[in-house]
Amino acid sequence: QVQLVESGGGSVQAGGSLRLSCKVSGYTYNSYCMGWFRQGSGKEREVVALLNTGGGRTWYVDAVKGRFTISQDNAKNTLYLQMNSLKPEDTAMYYCTDRCRNSWGQGTQVTVSS
After folding, report:
1. Fewer CB atoms inside 10 A, N or C side of the chain?
2. Cβ contact 83:68 at 8 Å
3. SS in 3 state form for 17-40?
4. Helix H or strand E encompassing 56
């Protein structure tokens, strides 16, 4: 059974850090397919980071460049999103996704207070 399970969300003050994890089970994912999205209240879902856009290059939306880092642990079949210098505008539900399979996790809430 294919499952993507996120964890690591929570409530932090501005300037704080969180590390999100996405445990993938049921198959071994392709790094080209993996990424993190987020959806704030009343907003459309947006892509935040992609693990591999070719040649091992990661991609980030401008709003998080220099603050967020996407990574993986192949042995654990797990995707991560390290989020530093968090801002109130980062508040959202964060989702792990396998874009190739159109598989999504249940999401983990990140709330950043000023």
Report:
1. N
2. yes
3. CEEEEEEEECCCCCHHHEEEEEEC
4. none
